[in-house]
Design brief:
single chain; alpha+beta; three-stranded mixed β-sheet; two-stranded antiparallel ribbon; 3 helices; flat
Amino acid sequence: MSDAKSYELFINGKWRAGGSRATLPVVNPATEKVFASVASATVSDLDEALASAERSRKAWSSRPAKERGEILVSAASILAEKAGAAARDLSSEQGKTIAEATGEYARAVETLEWNGRHAEELSAPIPLGPNRMIVP
């Protein structure tokens, strides 16, 4: 696994190892080979991430819709620039074809751009905030 990428947790604007310092292998289901490792998060890491997300939600919701929209359009531009590398990683992680992974990123860019350009027109209740989920 010497060529494998290693990913840390991103919490409160910083990359760091998980509290346990343990890592988990990420296996490409198409090749059954390990292509990366990810930090294993502890309950404490999760609590810290949720607290940080809640603080960010409060700051985000206080911004005017126009400003939030501009940020989404900017994020779309950044994602579009990085989509090729991200699609290769998604392909390895999920066993998808590059075309399929590239299409997913193209759709994400399109969604960010559309929501950013229509931010002032969209109205919805204030988001409830971050939550915990167990995913497969």
